[in-house]
Amino acid sequence: MARRTPLNDAHRALGARMVDFAGWDMPVQYTSVIAEHEAVRNHVGLFDVSHMGEVEFTGPGALETVNALISNDLARISDGQAVYAGLLNEQGGFVDDIVAYRFSPERILICVNASNRDKDFAWMKEHARGVTPVDRGDDFAQIAVQGPKAAGLVQRLTKTDTSKIGTYRFAEGEVAGVGAIISRTGYTGEDGFELYCAPGDAVALWNALLTEGQQDGVKACGLASRDSLRTEMKYALYGNDIDDSHTALEAGLGWIVKLDKAGFIGKDALVAQKAAGVKRKLVGFELTGPGIPRHGYPIHKEGKPVGEVTSGTMGPTVKKPIGIGYVPAELAAEGSTFDVEIRGRAVPAVVVKTPFHKKP
Amino acid sequence: MSDQNIPGNLKYTNEHEWARVEGNKVVVGITHHAQATLGDVVYVELPKVGATLDQGDEFGTVESVKAVSELFSPVSGKVVKVNDALTESPETLNEDPYGEGWILEIELSDTSQVSELLDAAAYGNLLKNA
Q1: Fold of A53-137
Q2: N vs C: which end of chain B shows fewer Cβ within 10 Å?
Q3: Cβ(A249)–Cβ(A258) below 8 Å
């Protein structure tokens, strides 16, 4: 039996098509993937992301404990800021990709992928030295409000001055009378917020956002548009583009790896890999022949298999067949060409600059 | 429109294709239910005119933003017409699956196969029991 978020009935009432995602009964789309995608690019969209997990570290040494587990550096940010980071294994591959919120050096909250909740918590419990992690996954619902009109919408529902919350910063306040962590983060490439609230408050918050957002052209958006939006930005999806066998450097996520900070799991492997040179890289490409690249399709160069597509779609905004995949480093430069094998056919592709979608 | 948009004058397959019999020819498309399940269609791959198909052969694919779906021929025969307009405007499959969204026309090699297809009532039951 799939788990349900507090918004399950709300999704069904809106006529959502529900699917099983990582053991959760989630809306994949309500009306049209393209309409939902475009609502986020041009107006504002709401996503139920309550299935994601949270792990909290509280007490003296919390920051140091988490810093030894993640690739980014919580010591370089201030209270009220968040970082995107890798929770890496000893080989520099991903146990998960996470966002860590620094409330204070003694309180760090980590948001993890739904598909990795149990694995991540077990990993953190096993490897934490100092503060003991607490699984807070069932204590939070989460609604992502994304799009150029998101800030205006959220501002009309809160007394907190959201103009003071910069990108990757957060504040605690009330939205629509509901206590929330108001975080200026997202997974769409648009401005917006992720609102964490108590599960019992999620329906009230969701309905208030839908009602107040009418004037903004708000749409409830499902997992399918969440995926097409993030693909157009080349944001990695765990299980597709990143996993335990590809390192953070191979994934092009060197910017979330602070090799100059004190020891963290995976650091030694990444230092060695950096010195030796990264042999395969995650690139963004466009097909120049007919077809759509999809997860798992082989990448060929002169008839020989050299890599694999990790994500792909017809980008609703960029209106092109776009893909993400691992290729040898010598094929990773912009303008490099290779073939994607689609149902036995070799379709030419070219490496392009990412994100695929550039804001006008 | 509900998923029960099933014209009575057409025949159907378990794979959610429809077939309109016109003499020794059959026009083929995907059902309203198929396009609704698939979502926004953004790409179609069609066979060439002159291709020969056996009943149940995969003859093309329809892709939405999210997924790839194979098309299967309801009958055996030769492809005599292909709706090339779908290549430029795949969204026609969503907008008018029983009309402008037709996919191809097959000249039957065995007219008796038509009787093996589902009628509207049987296809309606298939959807209800799905």
Answers
A1: Alpha-Beta Plaits (3.30.70)
A2: N
A3: no
Cβ(A40)–Cβ(A229) below 8 Å: yes
Query: Using the beta-carbon criterion (under 8 Å), do B66 and A227 form an inter-chain contact?
Result: yes
**CB–CB of B65 and A28 under 8 A?**
no
**Nearest CB to A314; choose among B45, B61, B65:** B65
ipTM: 0.87
**From residue A237, how far is each of A137, A229, A233, B67 by CA, in Å?**
20, 12, 11, 17
For testing contact with chain A, the best of B33, B42, B61 (most A CBs within 10 A): B42
Tell me what pLDDT residue A87 has.
98
Pick the residue from chain A with its C-alpha nearest to B37: A17
- Partners of residue B66 in chain A, C-beta under 8 Å: 28, 33, 224, 227-228, 313
pLDDT in the model for residue A133: 98
Distance of CA A187 to the CA centre of its chain: 5
| Omega of the bond leading into A355 within 30 degrees of 0 (cis) | yes
Q: pLDDT tens digits, residue range A152-174?
A: 999 999 999 999 999 999 999 99
Q: Other CB atoms closer than 10 Å to residue A163's CB: what's the count?
A: 8
Q: What fold characterizes domain A279-351?
A: Elongation Factor Tu (Ef-tu); domain 3 (2.40.30)
- Assigned CATH class of B11-124: mainly beta
Dihedral over Cα of A332, A337, A341, A342: its sign? positive
Read off the tokens for A254.
């060197």
Question: What confidence score (pLDDT) does residue B1 get?
Answer: 40
> Does A228 contact B66 at a Cβ distance shorter than 8 Å?
yes
